[in-house]
Amino acid sequence: MSVFRGTLVDTPSPGELRIRRDHVISVDTHGVITHLSPASSTPSDLVAQAIPLTERGFLLPTFADLHLHAPQYLNAGIGLDLPLMEWLDEYTYVAEERVDADPELARRLYARLVERLIEAGTGCVVAFGTIGVQANLILAQAFQDAGVRGFIGKLSMDQCPRPTYGEPSTAASLASVTEFLDRMDSLTGPLPPHQRVVAPILTPRFVPTCSDELLRGLAALAKARGVKVQSHMCESRDQMAWVEGTRGKADEVVFDEAGLLTEDTVQAHVTSFPPALVELVKTRGVTVAHCPLSNAYFSDAAFPLREAIDAGVKVGLGSDIAGGYALPIQTAMRQAVVVGRMREGARREAGGEQPHDGRGLKVDWVESLYLATRGGHAALGLGGAFEVGLPFDAQEITLVRGTRAVGQLDIFDLADTDKWWTEAVERWWCNGDHQNRTGMWVQGKRLLKQSA
């Protein structure tokens, strides 16, 4: 058992910032929170066992990245001037082919990727891989060895985007992903349940690369094997036009008719989100992975985050490496707020109707923190908050050592009031970075320990 004493920060619901000062939290040997209370009302034996956190620091749930293309980490930060479909052809498919063809490259790439994720406080990732079974098993092993939660997606795509990269038939695609599921079972099966931090996720890349037959087959496989599903939906104007021109129907209609819009589905982007689609996504229980940075480069519209939150749609954040160039979810949090404020400015300029609650289209920093932690984890059936019975997935953030602020922060007043703590957390949200992250745990296992 592990016991900690200090300040806990989390966001149980959108817009709710919960700061609990001088609390004791205990974690059992399976990595589950078993006790949480103010130190003043905690049994003395637990208080005696507690490891004190940094006085001017706090525990925060780890970040969840709901949309990351692992092999594209090779390309992070290049080629972003191209339209989406051209960028995929020139950079993305090439990177994935390289990773599938070179297991040693895959090992080096994925080992570095998980190191960077831990450094960035990301404890859970929904990852697109490649079409090759071996490379995806290397990816899964890298996550499992590092202790980072990973939903690993072997791509399914029977309509090849290029002669050298794709699967030859629907039958071959379904056989390949079934082999991947079986081998993932072999990888995690010998481990006790609380140590299984990786799982497969079925991954039809997007409608342009998947036949209707393949999509139906994947839906049946998801139901039979109890596996989650991820894809892209309504990402950009050129992509949606391609689907309309080849299928004669919209993205969401293709997915829904195949049976792939369910409460176990994560769809990235959805920047075209009219009221009818909002209702469909909400009714089906689909989670949207909002990727504000990559949307700015490859989409023709901003995801209507304010409306989605208000409608009760399940939403989390994604880095969308490498369509987004920044791996830390802190960047996605900040960009989500910036995009919301720009949308509100455009609404005012156009004389649009003021939403009934008076907030307009803005999203604040606390709501973005919810999306990065509780929102993303809860959509996957995980925790993302500090409550008894939830997994202990946490990062320790240190703001000040002695009298000097850490990293990029400059804090000159060291009061100990509720107002000071709220403002200090907001300062960290704005200007904090990896230097403030001095500890990280997933399912109770410590992954990071460093001096601030």
How is this structure best described in words?
It is a single chain. This protein folds into 2 domains: 2-61 and 384-449, Urease, subunit C, domain 1, CATH 2.30.40.10; 63-379, Alpha-Beta Barrel (TIM Barrel). The chain has 452 residues and is α/β, with parallel strands linked by helices. The strands form 4 sheets. Strands 6, 7, 8, 9, 10, 11, 12, 13 and 14 form a 9-stranded parallel β-sheet that branches. A 4-stranded mixed β-sheet has the order 3-2-1-4. The longest helix has 22 residues, at 329-350. The chain contains 14 helices and 19 strands. The relative contact order is 0.16. Helix content is 40%, strand content 22%. It is globular and about 65 Å long. The two termini are 25 Å apart.
Q: What secondary-structure arrangement, pairings included, does this model have?
A:
Layout: E1 2-10, E2 18-27, E3 33-38, H1 44-49, E4 51-52, E5 57-61, E6 63-69, H2 84-101, H3 103-119, E7 122-128, H4 133-146, E8 149-153, E9 155-156, H5 170-188, E10 198-204, H6 212-225, E11 228-233, H7 237-247, H8 251-258, E12 265-269, H9 275-284, E13 287-290, H10 292-298, H11 305-311, E14 314-317, H12 329-350, H13 365-379, E15 394-398, E16 400-401, E17 404-405, H14 418-431, E18 437-442, E19 445-449
Parallel strand pairs: 1-4, 6-7, 7-8, 8-10, 9-10, 10-11, 11-12, 12-13, 13-14
Antiparallel strand pairs: 1-2, 2-3, 5-15, 15-18, 16-17, 18-19
Helix pairs in contact: 3-4, 4-5, 5-6, 6-8, 12-13
Domain Amidohydrolase-related: 58-395
Cofactor: Zn(2+)
Protein name: Amidohydrolase-related domain-containing protein
